[in-house]
Amino acid sequence: IFPANSGNKEITWMMLEAGAETDVVNSVGRTAAQMAAFVGQHDCVTVINNFFSRERLDYYTKPQGLDKEPKLPVKLAGPLHKIITTTNMHPVKIVLLVKENPLLAEVEALQKCYRVLDLICEKCMKQKDMNEVLAMKMHYISCIFQKCITFLKEREDKLDGFIKSLLKGREKDGFPVYQEKLIRESIRKFPYCEATLLQQLVRSIAPVEI
């Protein structure tokens, strides 16, 4: 809690990587993220809410139960973890991170990755200490990966075409309609309708016309 309250993002990140638990509460029943938000250290809140340990992802690189093969090839764990832990959630940034890694920028690799993200999303929602923020983030990245697959399969310009579509502005005012529709679609497809975060997002977006 103390690094988060002090506003030191680097130390907060180091403690998280060292195994600090994000859901432990203090004497007044607040987590580190809640205390940091209370004192206005929103950068540290972002670090905590976006943290996902490599160990948790590596779980999917080993066969589980009756599986003969892991759900995620070891070679994809590093590139996927980099995207999962990014704090810049702009869709163009995520597509660029995919594009810059040849291991990721393939249909089969992205299919494996988005399925793992969907499993993590489900786990975040069904665990005892539900993490709606992380669940929504995993779902959002999964939706972008699925759209990447569509462009890789159907467009000659592949991911460059996806990036152009996301950046293209409407003629009359430059508004990025495709980008807005993609984000709205990902929110609409979030499978846990009872989630408080989802309801807040819907209430914020519903009155706004494209």
TrEMBL record:
Gene3D superfamilies referenced in this protein's UniProt entry, alphabetically: Ankyrin repeat-containing domain (1.25.40.20)
Matches recorded under InterPro entries: Ankyrin-MYND_dom_contain_2, Ankyrin_rpt-contain_sf
PANTHER family from the entry? ANKYRIN REPEAT AND MYND DOMAIN-CONTAINING PROTEIN 2 (PTHR24150)
Q: What is this protein called?
A: ANKY2 protein
**Organism of derivation:** Leptocoma aspasia
